[in-house]
Amino acid sequence: MPPPGEPADGAQPSEGSPDGSPGEPAGAARGRPDGPGDPAGALALRLTALRRRVAALVERRSADDPTAGDPLRGLHLPEAAVRHRLRTPAEPEEGEILADHPLHGAAPVGPDDRLARLARRLDLTDQDTAILLIAAAPDLDRNFETFYAYLNDDVGRRRPTVGLALDLCGLSTLDALARDHFHPTAPLSRLGLLDVGDRDAPFLGRPLRVPDRLIAHLLGNDVPDAALEGHVRP
Is residue 111 within 8 Å of residue 185, measured between CB atoms? Predict the structure, then answer.
């Protein structure tokens, strides 16, 4: 599985390649003008910043990876990949590279930034907010499925994992406070904003998902969840 964004057989890069170039995330805000009353526009700005950080991480990890161009990467584990992992430090120095591509935190990036509003109301930190965006990205822009599958080194794992979210936030996987963001009693899980799946899997490999109802709210849909029918007033 070659690094996302690299054309194969002379093809032109797709519009969703994480090359850091300006562009609109697929599906999130296409056909919707930026401005007041456009929550999708704020999400589009956040996703663009995230795409740049993903691109930087892909570039960093594929630079010396002998299997980066392997079309079967993520489907098998060749000896070269194992030897590369053995030579790679457990905590690669990626912080400086990612620092050049900051993610938006809890501060609003647009006039109707619902993620910022949610963070303010629930007293979420910048890191909480970034983790929510990382987890929500595949449901807002399908290209992130490809990006995450590459970074997860597994074509079947198209959602971010705990480990990948920490990497994209520039946090150490050995930092106890950083790992605490994913604890069942931490705000993201306790408030029902983030689902950390597969509790039997190794901690860093557990997939992250944002509930569909929250995704809809962030995009501007305030129709109550069907489970609340008969229990809330319009």
Answer: no
**Cα 209 from Cα 222, distance rounded (Å):** 20
Return the CA Rg of the chain.
18
> Do β-strands 208-209 and 195-196 pair in parallel, antiparallel, or remain unpaired?
antiparallel
| Amino acid (1-letter code) at residue 3 | P
116-151 pLDDT, tens digit per residue, is 999 999 999 999 999 999 999 999 999 999 999 989
Q: By C-alpha distance, which of 200, 130, 115 is closest to 167? A: 130
Provide the b/e sequence for 133-152 (b: ≥16 CB within 10 Å): bbbbbbbbbebbbbbbbbbb
Q: How far is CA 149 from the centre of its chain?
A: 11
DSSP, residue by residue, 13-26: PPTT--S----PPT
